[in-house]
Amino acid sequence: MTEEKKLVIIGASGHGKVVADIGKKCGYCEIVFLDDDITKKECGDYPVVGTSRDVCQFKDWEIIIAIGNAKVRRQMQQALSNDGFRMATLVHPQAVIGENVTIGTGSVVMAGAVVNPSSCIGVGCIINTCASVDHDCILSDYVHISVGAHVAGTVTIGEGTWIGAGATVSNNVNITGECMIGAGAVVVQDIKEIGTYVGIPARKSK
User: Fold this and answer.
1) What is the rounded CA–CA span in Å between residue 70 and residue 89?
2) Last residue of a domain, one of 88, 107, 133
């Protein structure tokens, strides 16, 4: 008899609702939320059953962190992994995943997203709705490719970098970690300094 899949989502937000929907479509029979805002009692159709401190009650469940802030997501996932919790990896059934793609634990690939062949998606990443990552890309841990953003082929993105909604990263570009690429920006050359980059072409914001 197949064991029922159970999922705990940490972070009862709009992003969490999307993660729960993917979880349901991926066959999780029971889904609950934890959130440190004690006023929250539900998130969409799912109950909020405690705070993140209550995660110890769910040792037999899979865990995923639905928090957009990369630093917080990294801190929580690393701590949970070190404590032996099982981190889920969620890929929406309507995402397109090419051959020889690897996706790290704790990552989420949302509806309409495309990850093309031979790309490597790190731990705790978010490939958001209708975003695309083309061939031979390397996304380090905790990268977020926002809604409708497009990463062309053979791009490397450093840990914790956030690519804003509708942004475009040209092919053969390297972006260092801990950067923020603004919504709609177009990155056409390597970014070597941590910072916020906006505009067409993307330039560091002062």
Assistant:
1) 16
2) 88
Interval 39-90: pLDDT, tens: 999 999 999 999 999 999 999 999 999 999 999 999 999 999 999 999 999 9
Domain boundary among 67, 88, 109: 88
The pTM score is 0.95
Residue carrying structure tokens 């159970």: 6
3-state secondary structure at position 164? coil
Q: Is 199 a domain residue? A: no
Catalytic position from the list 15, 92, 135, 150: 135
What pLDDT shows up at residue 2? 58
Same domain, yes or no: 29 and 42: yes
d(CA 154, CA 152): 7
Task: Based on the fold, state whether residues 84 and 95 are members of the same structural domain.
Answer: no
What percent of the chain lies above the pLDDT cut of 70? 99
Same domain, 105 and 134: yes
In a domain, 164, yes or no: yes
Is-catalytic flag, 135?
Answer: yes
47: preceding bond cis by omega (within 30 degrees): no
More confident residue, 1 or 83: 83
In the predicted model, is pLDDT for residue 203 greater than 90? yes
Exposure string for 76-109, b = 16+ CB within 10 A, e = fewer: bbeebbeeebebbbbbbeebebeeebebbbbbbb
